[in-house]
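User: Run a structure prediction on this.
Assistant: Running it now.
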Amino acid sequence: MSLLSVEHVVKRYGAGAQQRVALRDVSFELDAGELVAVRGRRRSGRSTLLRIAAGLEPPDSGVVRLEGTPLSERGNRALDEVCYCRKTFRASEGRLVLDQLVLGQLSRGVRASQARTRASEALRRVGAERCNALRPGELDGAERVRVAMARALVREPRLLVIDEPTLGIDLLDRDGVLQLLRSLADEGIAVLTSTADTTGLADANRALALSDGELDGMLVSQHASVIPLRRASGQ
């Protein structure tokens, strides 16, 4: 059984003549320890797909399952098991980077000492330990992505979802971020990411091509051999 299963997902926005179909009967699976990248141009539906896969948005039809159970039925557990890396920071969540990682844990009942230990370890794990005493506004693009991943990792997720991790990052820093995603997958965490260009596909196990809301193929990655795209039955 796959860790994550996206089954016949459809998502629409708007109504009537203004309605836009963002996803059209999308189905795919993701296993533990696998890094899958969704490639698509702007308005292809890739960001919508990642938000639905993470449980942040409900599909209009279809279902997302974690080990066979719909995310909608897993309650608060799903928020820890499937973590979406939000790259924005709210002032209410702490003045410093370390505070941003600690306060969210305290709200879930984690003891303060344990929360700080987890936060420091997560920052070290993503190579951002030097950022702990910085304000979020002082972070550069690559640091923001790494801290966003650390903030998700303190929840000890089984699946990490991150939309366009290399967007706005200097070319010299991109490889480090992509290598970090690969290393997390090698540790056993499933990683689902997205990209608008082929540079974001480095080291992915599979790269799914999304166009106009439809999965229309699989792109070859550098890390693994070709795996046929698993389409929904009847397609």
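Residues 43 and 212 are 7 Å apart (CA to CA).
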